[in-house]
Task: inverse folding
């Protein structure tokens, strides 16, 4: 049951800290102290400015809020302040209330047409429901507990991503033997390897044009001036689906085309199981389709059969994603031309069974990572629900 609490205007209880002179570029990859800027996650730096607890709000681009503890630094685009009276409002409670508020406002409260900035007067006007400090402490304790679970899950995801990266390197340079074990490293068993233009690969592998192992295709965009070419039930992979890629499979698309659109354009209805790769914005992102789909001209795709396993190809593309990104970055327009894919070569096992064994190991690693990501999403949703209930007084904490 909810109880009556006193509303407090944030602007009446805060004390601003001096404006920082450190630019956001002061962030380093492994500094000794937390560095807060307009970013959803804190950076690091080797310089500290403050050694007392304070609230840090990013005011440019990303509306972020953090609680700084002990020694930390903050950038010029970050607003730092403390609560005037800890007997009325706990610093962490205010941080939690702002965290909830910013999850709702989107770009309300921002100004500017380019890089948007959060208006300080908008934050000062926030009205907080302030129960007594004992209840504030209890609320913060509950939210800190779920934050710990979130942080632990994020750390596990990062750990397994590193493990997967190492596994990919081993599998795509050493492959697997019929017993499922990795081949010994070349320095221990040189007779198991052969030298090629790209270095040493297992003796049972080939270094071949991808075009000779899988059927390459692409796509097209039907004329948008003809509404009858669109929304016809045929899923169409486009740049709008960028966030759906790199998740092994793609089963849904933002846009659909019609059979008439296919017939009146260069678009092709590809069968299920093709491997798609973005060659423009989001260069190097890939996925395997779960049903028949068409693709836009911004994608390459490959139909695999007896010489190439589609899951192996997907993971090989993932392994070489940085190469694709670097090629695109070297151009005036971030794209990879068709000529590149015509001469693209791949080092892979001749035997389909070994390709499948490699893909199976990587799919198993992904299954674990995807499960952790799902769990993380549920924890974040649970946290949002708790914040909504506890910080608005809808549910009282004992």
Result:
């Amino acid at each position: 049951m909810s109880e009556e609490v006193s509303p407090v205007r944030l602007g009446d209880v805060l004390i601003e800290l001096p404006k920082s002179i450190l630019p956001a570029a002061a962030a380093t990859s492994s500094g000794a102290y937390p560095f807060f800027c307009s970013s959803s996650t804190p950076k690091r730096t080797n310089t500290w400015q403050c050694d007392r607890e304070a609230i840090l709000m990013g005011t440019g681009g990303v509306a972020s809020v953090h609680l700084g503890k002990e020694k930390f630094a903050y950038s010029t685009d970050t607003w730092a302040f403390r609560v005037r009276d800890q007997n009325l409002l706990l610093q962490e409670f205010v941080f939690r209330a702002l965290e909830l508020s910013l999850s709702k406002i989107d770009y309300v409260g921002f100004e500017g047409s380019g890089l948007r900035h959060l208006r300080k007067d908008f934050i000062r006007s926030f009205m907080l429901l302030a129960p007594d400090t004992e209840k504030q402490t209890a609320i913060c304790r509950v939210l800190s507990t779920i934050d710990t679970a979130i942080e632990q899950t994020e750390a596990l995801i990062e750990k397994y991503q590193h493990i997967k990266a190492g596994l990919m390197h081993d599998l795509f340079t050493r492959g697997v033997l019929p017993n499922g074990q990795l081949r010994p490293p070349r320095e221990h068993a040189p007779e198991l390897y052969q030298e090629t233009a790209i270095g040493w690969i297992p003796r049972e592998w080939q270094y071949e044009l991808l075009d000779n192992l899988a059927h390459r295709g692409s796509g097209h965009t039907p004329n948008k001036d003809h509404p009858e070419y669109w929304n016809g039930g045929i899923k169409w992979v486009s740049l709008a689906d960028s966030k759906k890629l790199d998740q092994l499979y793609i089963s849904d698309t933002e846009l659909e085309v019609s059979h008439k659109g296919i017939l009146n354009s260069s678009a092709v209805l590809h069968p299920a199981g093709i491997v798609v790769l973005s060659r423009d914005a989001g260069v190097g992102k890939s996925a395997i389709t779960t049903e028949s789909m068409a693709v836009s001209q911004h994608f390459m795709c490959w139909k695999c059969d007896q010489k190439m396993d589609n899951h192996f190809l997907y993971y090989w593309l993932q392994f070489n994603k940085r190469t694709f990104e670097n090629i695109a970055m070297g151009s005036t327009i971030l794209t990879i031309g068709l000529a590149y894919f015509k001469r693209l070569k791949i080092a892979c096992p001749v035997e389909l069974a070994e390709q499948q064994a490699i893909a199976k190991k990587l799919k198993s690693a992904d299954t674990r990572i995807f499960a952790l990501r799902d769990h993380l999403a549920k924890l974040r949703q649970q946290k949002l629900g708790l914040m909504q209930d506890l910080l608005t007084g809808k549910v009282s904490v004992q």
